[in-house]
Every structure is written in structure tokens, then in C-alpha cells.
Design goal:
alpha/beta, Rossmann fold
């Protein structure tokens, strides 16, 4: 089958069985490979959904300037789509955004605005980015702000994500694990689960240091997982259960996936695997579990997959992913505490 253009292959990502990531697990474990979307992440789905619906109502038309805040993946998804639709795109990032993501944005033709200082009131870069977006939108005629943090088209795009999982497994999905940031993926999957009366238990995976699920705000090293400001898309009780994962647990999960399953995935994918490791004792034998892997690992070669970077921040912790069995959560916590 020949597809019509790169945007036509967004979605319908593979669902694969994981045989080695959690040795001797008494349940069936699958991964939804969202990093195989053409822009490299789950955010491709939301980007194209938001733009198409905006075009249908005339909010985006010829000459529209799209302006959005992003730490990477949503910006790249929008840059890809704007390239196809011949739209000018300005992506507002901050100085913590990786060089790889900035280069990817520019490769698609995006203009990149870098916020150098955090918001003086909250101390957060996200708030400073949002303020810059509002200023740019106000000063730019015929502009459109997708606002991934509040636009309901974001979660609507992920009704399809959950539908694909349900269809692939014949409706038998006992547990679903989703990392959260804008909450688009989790909310969309939760809405589909409830609308179709599925018996799926949804686990939300948040970062230690994120405030989304009521945690205390603190420094986080892994971008795109968790948030310092609760997104407008968040609603209480979307998930049935929640797990908080440290930066080090993200790293160990990623390194474990690379060595055991030959999957080079991003930080939030490692977080999802680590969250499963924390709660696997609660999952009954014979259950069907699905992990959503949001983005690619190539964007983290300077951090998560850099031995030097990991050692600088956490010391020599390579034994945590070299061992025959996956790390023990308490051991990872002890390593992280020692470094801080």
C-alpha cells in the first residue's frame, strides 16, 4: 500500500511483545512504539489533529503563523506538519532545550525563539515560554497558538491511540501505563476507556519533582516528563493509579530497554518501564499489560545514553542495568540519594 505523504503515516504504530524487559513476569507485556511516528514521537498525533481541526474552522489558513511553546517533541511534530502545509512556524523553547531538538526544528524550517530566563514570579521556564508565545501571538497578524497544554484536540487525538491498542489485543487490555506531561495521551486514553466501558486499569507515570499529581516541585533533569505547572488538560481521577519515577529510574529503564530489547527509547519510556517494575507485584498472573513509549532515544544521546553525563550526575551506576535482573527500586533510590 502506497501512502499519500508523510503525514498519512502518523498513527497505527506497532504494538510489540516485550519478552526480556521484565524477566519471569507472570503477565503478558506489550509496548506501543509511538516513537515510530514519522516525527519521532507520540506528539505527531496531537500536532496534526490540532492543525487539521484549526484549518477546518478557519483558524489556520493561508499565511497563518503558527506559534507554540515546546521542549522538543510537540515542536518537532508541528514543524513537520507546517512544512507540509507551507505554514510559517515559530517554536518557543528555553535554554535547557537540547541542541538536537533545536537542530531538528530548524531542519524542518521552524524559527526558534529561545527564552533565556525563567519567569521571575514562578521561577519556571514553562511560564516564561508561555508568556513569550502570548506576546508573539499578540504582535503577529493572522497567528495561531495550538496551546497543547489546554487544547482538547490533544487528548482527542489519543482516543485513536487507545483504539489501536484495543483492536490489536482484541479488547483485552488489563493495564495501561502512560507517562504524563501535557496529559494529552493519558486523558485521551482514559476518555476512550470510559466511553467504551473497558476494564483497563490506567496507571499515570509522573516524575519525582513534578507537580501534576500533587508532588513537591523540585529539580528534574529529564525533559518532557512531568511538569512544574499543572496543565489545563489535567483532570483529577483520570487515572486509576499513579507512580512517581526519579530521573535515575528513567535512565535505568532506558538503558535496560536498549540492552534487553534493543529498543532505543526516550526518557519517559524508561520511566514507564521503571514504573511497571515498581508495581509488578500488584499485577495478577495472566494479565495483559501495555506500556506506551512516547519518543526516540537518539534525542538523549548526550544525556541518558552518555556514560559521562550519567556519571557526572549520579556516579558509577552502570551495575543497575548490567545486572542479570532488573534493578531493585530501593537500590536506585539509594544511589540517587547518595548523589544529591
Amino acid at each position: 500500500m502506497i501512502e499519500d505523504g508523510i503525514l498519512s503515516v502518523i498513527g497505527n504504530t506497532p504494538l510489540i511483545k516485550l519478552n526480556r524487559a521484565v524477566p519471569s513476569a507472570p503477565f503478558q507485556l506489550y509496548a506501543k512504539l509511538e516513537f515510530l511516528n514519522p516525527g519521532g514521537s507520540v506528539k505527531d498525533r496531537a500536532a496534526i489533529k490540532i492543525l487539521k481541526e484549526a484549518m477546518e474552522i478557519g483558524a489556520v489558513r493561508e499565511g497563518t503563523v503558527v506559534i507554540e511553546s515546546s521542549s522538543g517533541n510537540m515542536g518537532i511534530g508541528l514543524a513537520q506538519a507546517c512544512s507540509i502545509y507551507n505554514l510559517r512556524f515559530i517554536c518557543v523553547v528555553d535554554k535547557k532545550t537540547t541542541t538536537q531538538n533545536i537542530l531538528l526544528l530548524k531542519a524542518y524550517g521552524a524559527e526558534v525563539e529561545v527564552v533565556e530566563e525563567p519567569d521571575p514570579v514562578t521561577g519556571e521556564y514553562l511560564q516564561a515560554r508561555l508568556d513569550r508565545v502570548r506576546d508573539l501571538a499578540s504582535a503577529t497578524e493572522n497567528s495561531f497558538w495550538p496551546n497543547q497544554y489546554a487544547n482538547l484536540s490533544n487528548p482527542l487525538a489519543h482516543h485513536r491511540t487507545m483504539q489501536e491498542i484495543e483492536t490489536a489485543l482484541g479488547g483485552e487490555v488489563d493495564y495501561l501505563f502512560c507517562a504524563i506531561s501535557t496529559c494529552g495521551t493519558m486523558r485521551g486514553c482514559a476518555e476512550y476507556i470510559r466511553a467504551n466501558s473497558l476494564k483497563t486499569t490506567l496507571y499515570a507515570v509522573d516524575a519525582v519533582g513534578s507537580v501534576i499529581l500533587g508532588g513537591e516541585k523540585s529539580k528534574r533533569l529529564i525533559p518532557g516528563h512531568g511538569a512544574a505547572v499543572t496543565p489545563a488538560l489535567f483532570q483529577p481521577n483520570l487515572a486509576d493509579q499513579s507512580v512517581h519515577v526519579t530521573d535515575l529510574e528513567c535512565i535505568v529503564g532506558c538503558r535496560t530497554l536498549a540492552r534487553r530489547e534493543a529498543i532505543l527509547a526516550g526518557g519517559s519510556s524508561g520511566a514507564v518501564l521503571s514504573s511497571l517494575e515498581k508495581v509488578k507485584h500488584r499485577i495478577p498472573a495472566g494479565s495483559t499489560c501495555v506500556l506506551v513509549f512516547p519518543d526516540r532515544g537518539e534525542r538523549y544521546l548526550d544525556t541518558i545514553y552518555s556514560d559521562i553525563w550519567v556519571k557526572d550526575h549520579f556516579g558509577d551506576v552502570s551495575h543497575l542495568w548490567m545486572a542479570p535482573q532488573l534493578f531493585e527500586p530501593m537500590e536506585v533510590e539509594a544511589c540517587a540519594t547518595a548523589m544529591y
